[in-house]
Amino acid sequence: MGRHVAIVGVGQTHHSRRRTDVSQAGLVREATDRALADAKLTMEDIDSVVVASGPVLFAAVNQPEKWVVDAIGARLKPVVRITSGGGSGLAGALQGYYQIAGGQAERVLVVAYDKLSEGALQYSISTLYDPFWGREFAVGIMGFSAAYWRARMDVLGHTEEAAAMVAVKNRQNALSNPYAHVKQAVTVEEVLNSKPLAWPIKLLDVPPISDGAAAVVLSSERMAAKSTDRPAWIRGMGYFCEADNAAARSLLVSEPLALAARRIYRSAGITNPRRQFDVVEVQEPYTCFELSYYETLGLCQPGEAAELIRSGATAADGDIPVNPSGGCAGANPIGAAGLIRLIEGAAQVMGKPAGLRIPNAKTALVQSGGGWANLRGIAVLSA
Amino acid sequence: MLPRPDSFPVDLPPRHSVLSMPYTLTPGPATGTTLAALKQRRLLGSRFKTSGKVVVPAQDFCPDTGDSQFDFVEAPHTGVLNAFTETAEGLLGLVRIDGSDVDMAHRLVDTSYADLKVGQRVSAVWSDAPDAGYLSLSGFRPDASAPLGKVEPYAGGVEAVKVVPYHLDLHYNHAYGPFFGRLFDEMRTSGRILGVRMPDGDGALLPPREIDDISHRPSGTWVEIKQTGTVLAMSIIYLEFVGQKQPPPYIYAEILLDGARTKLIHNVSGLDMSRAKELVKPGTRVRAVWRVERTGSLDDISHFELLDGEEQH
Amino acid sequence: MSFPGVVVLASAQTELRPAWHSAQHVDLISAVSTAVFQGTGLTLEDVDFVIDSGSDVLDGRSISNCGFLGAMGAHHKEESRVEEDGLWAAAYGAAKIAAGGASAGLIIAYSKPSESDPNLFYKSQVEPFYQRPVGFDHRAAMGMQAQRYLADHGTSVGALAELVVRRWQDAASRGRVAIDSVPDVAGVLASPNVAAPLRQLMMSRLVDGAVAVLLVSDEVALRCGRSAPRITGVGTSMDTHAFAARRAGRLEAAEVAARAAYRQAGWAHPAPSLAEVSGSSAVGELMVLEAAGLAAPGRGLDLLEHGSPVAVNRSGGALPADPIMATGLVRLAEAARQLSNPGRYGLAAPRSALVHGTGGVGMQSHCFMTLEV
Prior knowledge:
B: 313 residues; mainly beta; 19 strands; C: 10-stranded mixed β-sheet; two-stranded antiparallel ribbon; globular
């Protein structure tokens, strides 16, 4: 790889169900201001901007980066938008990473957001489906996510109880996160008895629908020291896909995620993820996904996810804490969710998480993705 | 065996599709206050603190610098025409309100294209309609005698609009192309489901397409696919949402038809929904049930029903 | 700042047609994603990543790349969607190769505006509170831009019509554009008024089509034994959203983007052998050429004259064929072809090319790329 790239500043909004005090553009501004302040920079120091957000039908503004540009004072800078559904934030950061690694820029601002209170969420997500083939039967991404979980339940033992434990853990962790939108502890029983939405997915398996934005400042090695003496270095980052209706697409394991992990672990020197990672942040649009990621990311063997969560290993005080921030269960502005995971992972290795702190966290794993669970990426960060 | 589609093109008119999306948009403080003030026939601007620049109508952020610190000002209702055009929407111009540092785009009314001149004086025209929103200000008309107005301090007394209802209707005419054309034509006319063979000849792609997603090699000849299949994955939908086509509860299923290598998405029904969890699982065998009236779509299959008596996978 | 070697190895393009009624997006996309390898000695297996450009709003589907991944050849590869003109996707791909993160990437851009109302594509780009209610949109912006340009420089609509005719002639003879008949000047002037003073034919004609460009590292290009142009500079810039607040009579973002590309390429004075630029209107094209420094302000039409130092839009450019989202990538493919096969375009030993793409209402955003052989 070319030049080293670090995260030198992070910022996010206080996420909530509905922000009526700011427009979409104003939301983006808030996160931008915080990330720039954290990096001790102003917009003038930024060479290039990447805007990432979810599908435009979420919020009725096509190519919204062209509106947002005014709100962040980026007039006449390079501004481009990357979109990849729920993975937009991480996919956007990857574009910024390559701008610096490839020598096109010294500092890139990546800002991701969604203001989900403004549109009809499940309807817009259902338009993901082919207008000829399946859209009339689509239930956002919840219908198929629940179905795939149902398939994994029999083969891999990802039970409703195990998923409920994910909800309990993440919602507990979110209590300490000042930016989280949902702060409510729940019990396994409450999750299991919560209203079914797309069984086996129940209300408390589902993250909130949030308005929120997040931003990071990426920097070349040369400029990083101007912002912080403890940046989060990006040791590897990749974003892979699989064709949605490919023959023999596995419902049991996310193959693009497995591919991303294999490639990025190799380049980052990760051979034993459970031991080498101090903290993990995954984007779990539903609790069942977190169980699946444990296995795909190599935190445990296939079929052992339920035992991993039950053992407490992924709790904040476990040996491999997953989502000490609370994950999506705390806040879920979809297009920003991946960047929030990156921020939370980076903040741990920078030693300044806003919520729960994992002591001596040196190496973090971040996962994000979108689409029909067919766009998947990871990043490996280290102090 | 059936011929490749290119030798028998099926010329269907495109499929019409509408995305009709309701929104509740948040204008933010400057725009929200401006929208409310327009109802009182007042035009507000922002005076940005660092640059002193006045922007009319008011914006939260200076378009030049991104400055977010501003005071509202009351703008005059007169200005100068700086550019104009005529489109299907009517006459539109860039008007520089007296005292503003940037132009604003708005309608030009009570005039014609031939009568417009850059540099001419214009004045505001107001609507009498009570719910005109931003169009409470109908536009500007040429007004040679319009006095030179001045930006004044904001007098207050306006409660900002917090939410603006909005609707986006997007219409599409999607081409069927050779593959969906043939597939749906056969479904409509003969109630058959056709795929194309995988490049390796083993099984079929459904929906049919020219290139196999994985090998990226050309697919093979058309082949009829059985109307029985296996549920790969399923969920029971209780959620209600905008745009939903049927009332819950119902079963969302991804089904692999016998002979196909790729799944289709449909519903399994015709069963006791209180026993849905035990009756429908990954591996459950199902069969297509067709509608009487067929239009050429996946929805020509009304649903999939349980295949009784066959051994469960 | 240097730009390590990235080579435009090959390209493939469907015919650009007002409507591809007989094909779906996937058909157009797979046509180019398979054809692009012809003659290169490479296959899809050699490709590390796919970067694509397309629009959810035009396609009528959310995260529309998701449905086209197989057709694009992206299965189990790295993939990203740039929701902007395809030249930005190429810029992303070039940066990725320059970073050493990959040695070959497929850049794909496509659109089928015939399937939707493209006016809504642009109307939905303007902010919904002040601009949409009054009917301000792309056409209005292009009309006002033209009205100012003509007034500032004394250019006649007749001269614009001549530019349009030349572009359509070039597209008919050299480009890969479906053209039934080339309009004459009177025909251009008699076409319907779309955004006064612009007539229908003075606006870019929206067409369906797909294009794929294969970018590779210097080493891969050497191995393939093909002499192909290298990307030596990239510059992009976005102006303010509010068209009314932009500098009157100028495309400031185009100026900034061009300067950035020249700086990277080490071009003290821009003197490319050829240029392929995207203009959303006849005036838009002239303003781009002037912003890029190829002509003085108001003198863009001089580049049409015989003996002009720069061969501009020998493909016809965007006026006869504007496949929104793919237009800039078509320009890149055309420029690379012209550098590789100059004879077919009436060019003598060209050394360099300037490529341009644009996006947004009133051409808010610009990307320039320099190519050299």
